[in-house]
Amino acid sequence: MIAGAVVTLALFIFPLWKITLEAPQYPTPLGMYIYINDFADANPHDIKNINIMNHYVGMQYIPEAIPEFKIFPAGILITFALGILIAIKGNHKWYLGWFILMVLLSSAGIYDFYLWEHDYGHNLDPKAIMKFTNPDGTVMGFQPPLFGSKNILNFTAHSYPQLGAYFLALGIALSLVAFYVGRKEKRAQNETA
After folding, report:
1. 52 in helix, strand or coil?
2. How far apart are CA 114 and CA 108, in angstroms?
3. What's the pLDDT tens digit per position in 44-88?
4. Which of 35, 16, 2 is nearest to 171 (CA)?
5. Judging by beta carbons within 10 Å of its beta carbon (0-12, 13-18, 19+), is residue 166 exposed, middle or buried?
6. DSSP 8-state symbol, 139
7. How many CA atoms lie less than 13 Å away from 140 in the CB half-sphere?
8. How far is CA 143 from CA 65, 117, 121, 122, 176, in A?
9. What is the pTM assigned to this prediction?
10. Any idea what DSSP says for residue 141?
């Protein structure tokens, strides 16, 4: 259980997600890493170039900071401390509780990411220089995929988890393993008693 809690701290080092935009006019794809407390260029000036490009179709600029950059780090530190306390107490039933809590918080984070992408891709400036419409006449959205790849005009947008997300998943999985191991040990103790 301790290992599961400690592994989640890797989110402070490694990116959680990456969005990449490929297009013929960009021999090196544009990309940005999403950390729990920051956005970062995949290559120098990528976010600046994405913002310039997006300006023409009326998309919002990628901000320097968002409220989640304060909430997510605090959430990870709190759940880390809670995980350590549960591990010290040693009750395997609480391991399952921590697992469920982490799955719920991770799901909320993914949903928040989806909402952010939706707003970013659909809340367009009506005074944009270039306007595109769908075949039915509605305004075209430019939302990148939550997970996977998607063609948007002449771009292919890719959105995939990175090392930080894998460490988080590993930490969550380790807590579930700890629960099953603890339950097995408790049953063995009851049988010998």
Report:
1. helix
2. 10
3. 999 999 999 888 888 989 988 889 999 999 999 999 999 999 999
4. 2
5. middle
6. B
7. 13
8. 19, 6, 4, 7, 34
9. 0.91
10. P
